[in-house]
Amino acid sequence: MAKSLNCPNCAAAFDPKDNSCAYCGSYIITSKAKQITYNLDEQEPKYKKIFFHGNEMREHEIPIRSGFANMFYSITRSDGGRLLLTNQRLIFCAHAINLNPHLYWELDLKEIDRTELGLNLFISQRFHIFEREENETIFVVYGGKHWLNELTNALEKISE
Fold first, then answer.
1. Beta-carbon contacts of residue 56 (< 8 Å; ≥ 6 apart)
2. Residue 116: in which H helix or E strand, if any?
3. Which of these, 123, 133, 129, lies nearest to 91 by C-alpha position?
4. Which helix (H) or strand (E) holds 71?
5. Can you name the residues that pair with 99 across neighbouring β-strands?
């Protein structure tokens, strides 16, 4: 395991156990945990910038939940990586062990028409995202019901 990483904002070394840069105050999501639900009250006022897989979050954007996921195309094809739900977007970044290791997918929450759970695969579950323009994206995630609840809550806050 790496003893230090470089901050994507200022390039200063930081300890990945801290998840934040002592120099510039950025929050860097590096966790290896399967699923994480973030405490929103702890993050927004405290951190200047937030990064997920080296990508800077937008202004006033904060993480809600992240975890391992597969972007599902068919029974024989998927890309593994991490899925992040924020108060503004749903973001998927593939990990390096894929045929397409640079895959980056994002969708503004305002573009989501509906979501639903799909096939339950014992410890993981298909999670369907339907865009307003009729596109469908399927992820296989751990804790599909938790993902659905968190996304539903985020969508309700946007529509307020």
1. 8, 9, 49, 50
2. strand 112-121
3. 129
4. strand 63-74
5. none
* DSSP category for residue 101: T
- According to DSSP H, which parts of the chain are helical? 40-43, 144-159
Segment 53-88, tens digit of pLDDT: 777 888 888 888 888 899 999 989 899 999 999 999
Q: How far apart are CA 32 and CA 66, in angstroms?
A: 10
Against a cut of 0.85, is the pTM above it? no
Q: pLDDT for 124-147, tens place per residue?
A: 899 999 999 889 999 999 888 999
The residue whose two tokens read 């300890």 is: 15
Q: What is the rounded distance in angstroms from the CA atom of residue 36 to the CA atom of residue 52?
A: 13
Across the chain, mean pLDDT equals 82
